[in-house]
Amino acid sequence: MNEADVKLKEVHRVWGLSEAEIIKSFLESNGIDCTFQGRNVLTVYPFTTDGLGELRIMVMEEDFEAARALLKENDIVPEDP
């Protein structure tokens, strides 16, 4: 599999780098790699207003269900309605 074949899916959104790093560490300690989207905006505008500080935590598509379950089990994301 090459990088072009990797499909990422958003597992959660947060409003700051600290929270994103904690979730990333948690997921990676459970064997799920993840990355952030939206981080570049924080380096230019280091504040959170109108969605500018929002970070999307992305996991590989095949890890999405496991990551979502881990986050729900630990009350990091709310249960689906």
How does this model look, in words?
There is one protein chain. The chain is α+β, with helices and mostly antiparallel strands and 81 residues long. The chain has a single domain, classed as 2-Layer Sandwich (Alpha-Beta Plaits). The protein contains three helices and three strands, in the order βαβαβα. It has a three-stranded antiparallel sheet with strand order 1-3-2, covered by helices on one side.
Output the CATH topology.
Alpha-Beta Plaits
Q: Mean pLDDT across all residues, rounded?
A: 82
Count of distinct strands = 3
Helix and strand pattern: EHEHEH
Structural domains: how many: 1
CATH class: Alpha Beta
SSE class? alpha+beta
Q: Helix count?
A: 3
Major β-sheet, in short? 3 strands, antiparallel
List unreliable stretches of 5+ residues: none
Rg, Cα atoms, Å: 13 Å
Q: Say which CATH homologous superfamily is assigned.
A: UreE, C-terminal domain
Q: So, CATH architecture?
A: 2-Layer Sandwich
Q: Note the gap between the termini.
A: 35 Å
Spatial shape: globular
Measured by DSSP, the beta-strand proportion falls in 15-25%
Helix content: 25-40%
Q: How are the strands of the biggest sheet laid out side by side?
A: 1-3-2
Task: Summarize the entry for a quick read.
The protein is α+β, with helices and mostly antiparallel strands. The protein has three helices and three strands, in the order βαβαβα.
Characteristics of this structure?
81 residues; Alpha-Beta Plaits; three-stranded antiparallel β-sheet; 3 strands
List the helices and strands and how they pair.
Elements lengths: L7 E7 L2 H13 L4 E4 L1 H6 L10 E6 L3 H10 L8
Antiparallel strand pairs: 1-3, 2-3
